[in-house]
Design brief:
Blueprint: E1 11-18, H1 23-39, E2 46-50, E3 56-60, E4 66-72, E5 75-81, E6 86-92, H2 98-105, H3 108-115, H4 119-140, E7 170-172, E8 175-185, E9 190-197, E10 210-215
Parallel strand pairs: 1-10
Antiparallel strand pairs: 1-5, 2-3, 4-5, 6-9, 7-8, 8-9
Length: about 220
C-alpha cells in the first residue's frame, strides 16, 4: 500500500458520525466515499463486497484496503488501513448492570477492575472493554465466538481517560499479535473500540500503528 494517496501503512483512520436511524445505508455510503477520497479515485471505481462470514472488503481500486464498519443507534464508525485486518465497534454510553455483567461474561481480571471503580464509572468501563472485544473479533474474522467475551483486553493505564486523549493500541495480554484500544467520542456520549490483527501482516504487537479518529458529517468528502 506504500505510495497510494491518503493511505499511510502505519495509520488506522477511524471516521465516525451521528445518524438519524439510517445507520446501515449511511455506513456503506461513507465507506465508499471515504475510501475513494483517500485513494484519489472516483467513487465508481470502488465497491463493497463481503466474505462468506459477512466481513466487508473493498473491490476495484480499493482492493487491498482493509476496512471495518460498525453502527449503533444514532452513530456509526468506519475504519480503514493499508496494513492488516482490523475491526471497529461503537456503542452509545448508557447505564448497565455493569458489575454483574462483567462477572458473568468478562475475564476475572477485567471484572475485578470494573468492580474496583466508582459505581458511576462502571458502565463506561464495561463498554470500553466491550467495544474492544467486538473490534478484536472482527479483526480476527470470527466475532465473539469461541470465548470472545472472556478474551482479555489491555486495561487502561489511567482511568478515566482525559478529554482528547489519543487512542494508542496495545497488544492483548494473551495474544501479542493483536492490538486494541478504545476512545471516548462525542463529548463522552459514545465509545469507539479499534483492533488490528498485526500477526496477519507478519508482525506482532502494535507494530508502531497510529490510530487517528475524526468526526465527520454524513455529507463530508474525505
Amino acid at each position: 500500500m506504500n505510495g497510494r494517496p491518503g493511505l499511510d501503512p502505519d495509520t488506522v483512520t477511524v471516521l465516525w458520525c451521528t445518524t438519524n436511524g439510517d445507520e446501515r445505508r449511511t455506513a456503506r455510503t461513507l465507506l465508499l466515499r471515504s475510501a475513494a477520497g483517500m485513494l484519489g479515485v472516483p467513487e465508481s471505481e470502488v465497491w463493497v463486497e463481503h466474505e462468506p462470514g459477512g466481513r466487508p472488503y473493498l473491490g476495484g481500486a480499493g482492493e487491498g484496503v482493509r476496512v471495518s464498519v460498525a453502527h449503533t443507534r444514532g452513530a456509526l464508525a468506519i475504519a480503514l488501513t493499508g496494513r492488516a485486518p482490523l475491526g471497529v465497534d461503537v456503542e452509545g454510553v448508557r447505564q448497565l448492570r455493569a458489575e454483574s455483567m462483567a462477572r458473568a461474561w468478562l475475564h476475572p481480571a477485567e471484572a475485578a477492575w470494573i468492580s474496583g471503580l466508582p459505581e458511576q464509572e462502571r458502565s463506561v468501563a464495561f463498554l470500553w472493554l466491550w467495544t474492544q472485544k467486538e473490534a478484536v473479533g472482527k479483526a480476527l474474522g470470527r466475532g465473539l465466538r469461541g470465548g470472545g467475551m472472556s478474551r482479555r483486553m489491555p486495561l487502561p493505564e489511567h482511568w478515566p481517560p482525559g478529554p482528547g486523549t489519543p487512542p494508542a493500541p496495545h497488544p492483548l495480554p494473551d495474544a501479542d499479535d493483536v492490538a486494541s484500544c478504545a476512545v471516548m467520542v462525542g463529548d463522552g456520549r459514545h465509545v469507539l473500540g479499534v483492533a488490528l490483527h498485526c500477526g496477519a501482516a507478519g508482525g506482532s504487537g502494535d507494530g508502531g500503528v497510529r490510530v487517528q479518529v475524526r468526526r465527520i458529517s454524513r455529507g463530508t468528502r474525505t
